[in-house]
User: Fold these one by one.
Assistant:
Number 1:
Amino acid sequence: MSALQQAKLLALEMTGLSKDALHIHVGLLVFFGAALLLRSPLAKPRPWLVAALVTIVGELWDLGDNLLGGSPMLLAEHWHDVWNTMLWPTVILLLANWTSVLSRR
């Protein structure tokens, strides 16, 4: 089992969250963390791009672990994880841009 899989199991055990809920929380944590570290407003794409990159790398790692472990490649499940992880960062990015446009009127 890879280090990523071990870390995910530990996080699930420690938090008591479901796998889907953990994806949502990690996506928001990476998005807001990137905004803070990069000192970038939420309306700019950089924090969203960091969250997307982390999400994609994590899912590619999961795919690799599945292939190495002999598990079938269930692309729909990986897409579900990407969707779960990136939904709220995407909504926040769009709302931040929309409200900044409205406030300029």
Number 2:
Amino acid sequence: MARGFNKVILMGNLARDPEIRYTVDKRAMARFAVAVNNTWKDKNGELQESVDFIPVVVWGPQAENCERYLKKGNPVLIEGRIQVRSYEAKDGSGKRYATDVVASGVTFLGSKRQEESSGSFGDEGFGDSIRKDKRFGASDEDFPMDISEMQNEEDADIPF
């Protein structure tokens, strides 16, 4: 029998804030939905659009980070696998099925300015906290100059 392959990569925006719960052994589990847009042209050539809301489950410390830093509308990249589970309906009407993406990795997307303006990461973005954190051996001089600091176009010697 051939070995299977189950890999999912999603990029979209959070449809709601992550909901976190803890198992009896105190393991964190976060649930949220990712809204993924889909556009296509119909047979008349008109642009059509739909949105899929895909349920995602994240486990462990990564679940706690999702709850701490992600809010509705934040862009994310999810890597994981599809999981289908079954359960008995509470009303006794039979077996039900649920499909989730179980995340093995969650990447927070978006610009630092978006994160700061939404307050998602507190008073400082990730870059600022790394620059100020001397454990990383970095200082403000170790990072490239911000283009907004340039006086005029003559000084703009950008190497790319």
